[in-house]
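> call design_seq(struct)
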């Protein structure tokens, strides 16, 4: 029952869970990232909330037998889709500890130790990205919330609304869609947002300057520029140094969305490409992408982290008694969340256990893998490199797949079913269908990439048209999957 537990049973459950985590990580190099699920595979989950208890080991075997087979592993070394999540097991176990001890970072007076760890870890990240002393920030659930937090703080520089001149935000047409969503949620109207056309996926500084000048002349108030360090599609970095100069000249807030790419500044190969990053007023970075952390860890770093409390302060009789005077050490008033988990513990623990140099090496490895892939693509007849390596992203195609989006989709579907299997999704670059690989997983090998290209070549050249769509979309038996495979064990 809740509140009273059998010590032996609890310990057995703890060990079983720990073993599942460790076995997952030790088994990651095998087979394929997984297979696509059909809704019928998961129909057994649609049951009324059980009123009676089920032994924990039986529930765990339902998890391993009925849930875990139905997903694509983002941390598999041959998962190249989106931005993979190659979480380190040490980070995962640290997170299990933070949750297991129900640690929070809501405020300094209740949670001084965890709060200080988060503040220090944000400082480490800011320093690693080259930001000046005194920079710091707040950890969030991900990059979307970090971007939203940055925009809210930047807008607050204008004081409370209504504003005498309409504030305007500038970003490129390759910005992550979470930027547009954050602006919408914060109440920016479409006519306050300038989505500027990119040139080869990069914002054009002169175009930003011209748009700012035009808005000022029309009596509006240019507020901020949102640049991207590592677009999700092609890994392209905006010209950060030039954009920071535009922002300085024009008195605008300079935010860099480096959710994916800012981590490249930790590598020795990536840093020159991120020239100007350290000039930003604020930077979004997602440790749950290229800093090898489990999902649920984003971060907003600011030159003046004290500005967070100005935007997110709270007041009430019972809260005041718990607050740090000035609130600058209270993380529950440094962002939109109040009660919040101790989410940076996993990153602090990772950096302590492995050392920052190991993180740098792992970032470098991702950059080297992308270079290897691009070189192979360039060197093999039949293949064509469209973009890259840009950070750890390479976009390429095989001539036999031509400009046919369906051929790319078909090859992508088949790649997952092969042994070894890979998760490689198609995209478009400048309207042209191609494959996109993001190589940030330090467990990926050069051999994995060579095999991938061999397989694509074979599928592109020999795969007959009749292999339309993935075999897993075959018509399901509607009654199938109603029962969990492991239920009752
Ligand atoms: C992933 C990503 C985001 C969104 O971050 P989440 O952690 O998914 O919320 C924002 N911007 C860029 C450039 C990204 O790659």
């Amino acid at each position: 029952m809740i509140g009273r537990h059998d010590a032996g049973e609890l310990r057995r459950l703890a060990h079983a869970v720990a073993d599942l985590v460790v076995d997952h990580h030790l088994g990651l190099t095998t087979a394929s990232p997984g297979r696509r699920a059909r809704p019928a595979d998961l129909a057994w989950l649609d049951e009324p909330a059980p009123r009676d208890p089920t032994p924990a080991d039986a529930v765990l075997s339902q998890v391993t037998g009925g849930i875990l087979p139905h997903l694509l592993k983002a941390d598999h070394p041959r998962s190249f889709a989106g931005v993979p999540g190659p979480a380190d097991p040490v980070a995962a176990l640290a997170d299990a500890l933070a949750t297991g001890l129900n640690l929070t970072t809501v405020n300094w007076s209740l949670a001084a130790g965890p709060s200080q760890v988060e503040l220090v870890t944000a400082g480490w990240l800011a320093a690693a990205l080259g930001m000046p002393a005194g920079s710091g920030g707040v950890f969030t659930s991900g990059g979307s919330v970090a971007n939203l937090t940055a925009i809210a703080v930047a807008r607050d520089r204008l004081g409370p609304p209504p504003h005498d001149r309409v504030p305007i935000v500038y970003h490129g047409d390759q910005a992550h869609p979470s930027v547009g969503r954050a602006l919408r949620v914060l109440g920016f109207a479409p006519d306050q947002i300038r989505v500027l056309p990119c040139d080869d996926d990069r914002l054009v500084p002169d175009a930003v300057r011209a748009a700012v000048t035009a808005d000022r002349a029309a009596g509006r108030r240019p507020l901020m520029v949102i640049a991207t360090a590592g677009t999700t599609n092609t890994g392209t970095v905006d010209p950060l140094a030039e954009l920071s100069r535009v922002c300085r000249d024009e008195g605008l807030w300079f935010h860099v969305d480096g959710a994916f790419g800012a981590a490249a500044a930790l590598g020795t190969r990536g840093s020159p490409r991120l020239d100007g990053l350290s000039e930003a007023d604020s930077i979004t970075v997602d440790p749950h992408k290229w800093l090898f952390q489990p999902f649920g860890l984003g971060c907003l770093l600011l030159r003046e982290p004290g500005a967070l409390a100005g935007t997110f302060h709270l007041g009430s009789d019972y809260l005041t008694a718990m607050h740090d005077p000035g609130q600058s050490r209270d993380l529950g008033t440094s962002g939109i969340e109040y009660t919040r988990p101790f989410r940076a513990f996993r990153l602090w623990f990772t950096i302590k256990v492995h050392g920052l140099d190991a993180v740098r090496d792992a970032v470098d490895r991702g950059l080297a893998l992308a270079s290897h892939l691009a070189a192979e693509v360039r060197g093999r007849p039949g293949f064509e490199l469209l973009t890259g390596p840009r950070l750890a992203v390479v976009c390429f195609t095989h001539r036999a797949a031509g400009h046919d989006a369906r051929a790319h989709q078909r090859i992508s579907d088949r790649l997952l079913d092969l042994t070894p299997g890979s998760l490689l999704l198609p995209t478009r670059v400048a309207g042209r269908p191609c494959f996109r690989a993001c190589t940030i997983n330090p467990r990926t090998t050069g051999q994995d990439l060579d095999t991938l290209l061999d397989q694509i070549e074979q599928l592109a050249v020999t795969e007959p048209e009749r292999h339309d769509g993935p075999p897993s979309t075959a018509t399901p038996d509607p009654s199938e999957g109603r029962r969990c495979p492991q239920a009752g064990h």
